[in-house]
Amino acid sequence: MSRKNEAIPGVDWVAGAGRFVSVKKSLCTGCGDCVKVCLGGCFEIRDGKARVKTLSTCMECASCWYACSQDAVSFRWPKGGCGFRTNWG
Amino acid sequence: MNQSNYDVIVIGAGFGGPVAARLCAQAGLSVLLLERGAEVGDKIISGLTIPFYGFVFGPDFIREGNPPIERPVDGIINYILTDIENGRMEIEDTLRVPAPFSPVVAFGYNAYCKPFCQWLAQKAVDAGARLRTSVVVSDFLYENGRIAGVITDGGERISAKIVLNAEGSQGLLAVKAGVREKYPPDTISLADVYDYEMDKADVDRIFGHSLRFCWGWDEQKIAPPLGRGNGLMVWPYRGSLHFMQDQCIRKDDGPVYNLKKALATYHKNVTEKLPWWRDEVAPKVKLRARMWDGFEIFVGLNEKLRDMPNYTDGMLLIGDVAGLENTELCDGVPTAWFSGEIAARVAIEAIQKKDFSASFLKKYSDQVRAHPIIHWSVRARNRYNLRFAQEKHELAELKRCIHEGWGLGAFGHTSSALVKTALPMIQEDPAVIGQWVRLFLRYYYNWHHERFDYNCKKPLVPKRPPTPSRVLALSLKAMDLGLKAASPFLSRTAGTLLPKAQNADRFMQKVLPTAEPIYLAALKATDPLARRLGEAFLKALVNMDPTALDGDSTERSRQ
Lengths: 89, 559
Ligand SMILES: Cc1cc2nc3c(=O)[nH]c(=O)nc-3n(C[C@H](O)[C@H](O)[C@H](O)COP(=O)(O)OP(=O)(O)OC[C@H]3O[C@@H](n4cnc5c(N)ncnc54)[C@H](O)[C@@H]3O)c2cc1C
Hints:
Bound molecules: flavin-adenine dinucleotide
CATH class of the domain at 21-77 in chain A: Alpha Beta
Structural class of chain B: alpha/beta
Largest sheet of chain B: 8 strands, mixed
CATH topology of the largest domain in chain B: FAD/NAD(P)-binding domain
Shape of chain A: elongated
Strand content of chain B: 15-25%
Largest sheet of chain A: 3 strands, antiparallel
Largest interface: A-B, 34 and 49 residues
Strand content of chain A: 25-35%
Strand order of the largest sheet of chain A: 1-2-7
Oligomer: heterodimer
Mean pLDDT of chain A: 97
Mean pLDDT of chain B: 93
Number of strands of chain A: 7
Number of strands of chain B: 18
CATH superfamily of the largest domain in chain B: FAD/NAD(P)-binding domain
Radius of gyration of chain B: 23 Å
Number of helices of chain B: 19
CATH class of the largest domain in chain B: Alpha Beta
Helix content of chain B: 40-55%
């Protein structure tokens, strides 16, 4: 099963990826860097802390992981064969 | 049942992994190539121009093969935007292969990652490697403190004598194993890539075979200016374009940028204000895909990161995960190929000697660092310096950086690396010159006829033209005979010149200021004639019998 997103053409998201990106609340300072670098709009700040809003537009670039100076974002790959796929890279 | 024990496990079927896998399999080793995507290439996002030096100096199966390419590239046109509101710009286009050689002698080849990596992976499989997709390597197996295999996300444990890790720029596994640190955000550029469909005839007419780069002042918000980013880059493909803007996540230790906002603004400004995009390109294109990915363009400029190990007990790092992206052209494919080849050689020797210790594997690191093109790739500084000119609005300085990075001035810092790589190959076997000539001719022929090894629309050997042009085939035969006769002389000469190769940059820096204006004026004067010659040459080339262009390995694989 895969999904498309009208705003991001040419990319499919294959279901079953799991929660491969997450924020450790105890480490997060709520600075919003992850929100700023994520082109997929996957993060939001709630009650002064970042949280993953959706992974359905995640292109697995890991910018959130690089940008977080507190190491609060944990990032691993989605389950094999899942997550984004494209023919046009 | 999946086998649980191999000589070599290669992680990642991107650009570097399959090269290492093929060479190890060819040496008779049992090889497992693991890829997390459901299909090879699903997860790879790129430009993509693979510069000529990857093909010329890289693995011979690529040099002699027929991989799927989208367009040969003959040079770069740099647009320096001084006033976007009024469409004012200057042009630097001195780095181009001139007629009659263009576009056959190419500066590089544009390609989509997916078919190209599938071609590479198939070559590994053909040589006997086992490919498994939809498998994420999540950790390593250890034996007496050394890496001795992998653990997959499905919990499988697969052991190997040696692991070759070509996992790409994020390097999650290399960080986990403690070989490298996570790259800091000022080394990573986030690239926003748009794929547009366009009629081939329009691409031919508007772009021809040139890449287009744009540079400008920060506040114009047209070419990502913040920190050490790129300008806008446009790659012409066969019947489509790749449009890319990218920007480092932060500059030095400064704050992280709002890339979501910035990249959206740049894209809007370019498509609405850049005259040639707005007037010529926009009416002819249809957006097909949008993708983004980060790449580690400035790892090489950070000495500590650059000198971090690319090996540990039982494992070697290949390509982007070893921080080998070029700091100037942002190309990482040639260095992934070179390091893949070196890794395979060292792995084969390690297996023969049964020594997988870090102290033995250090020879991989030594050879990678000594490779002249890799050495240059991870040090060139024009792109880095360009930001100071941008910040200060120094047009002369900006033009100098662009000229030295992506104009003729580039020969002032690339010549030594190229000559130092070419001469030992000629010294070893001058017949390689014949391979280089055939490479350029064949790749153009293949592009023209869409003649590729796999997934090709036309068979590998298309029907011979009813009256094939024989001039080129005969010239190639004559070249082969000439090279054979001159072989001892060429080999000796290459050997004599080699110690002087490191002076090539200094020599070019000295002669270029005088030679460049003369060269450019001569090109202008001879251009009409050269173009006519070029057209006649192309006609003969596309009408020849292609078997005369194939390299030895193509013939071997057909037998
Ligand atoms: C936007 C952009 C533009 C670029 N433009 C150019 C260009 O014009 N010219 C050029 O030469 N280079 C360019 N590059 C760089 C080039 O794409 C890389 O240098 C090249 O892909 C590196 O090859 P690699 O084998 O090291 O890694 P990759 O090609 O990234 O391959 C890594 C592979 O490993 C797989 N993988 C990762 N982790 C795991 C795991 N744990 N388990 C299983 N599989 C895994 C991935 O799915 C992937 O297939 C560009 C890069 C980007 C992002």
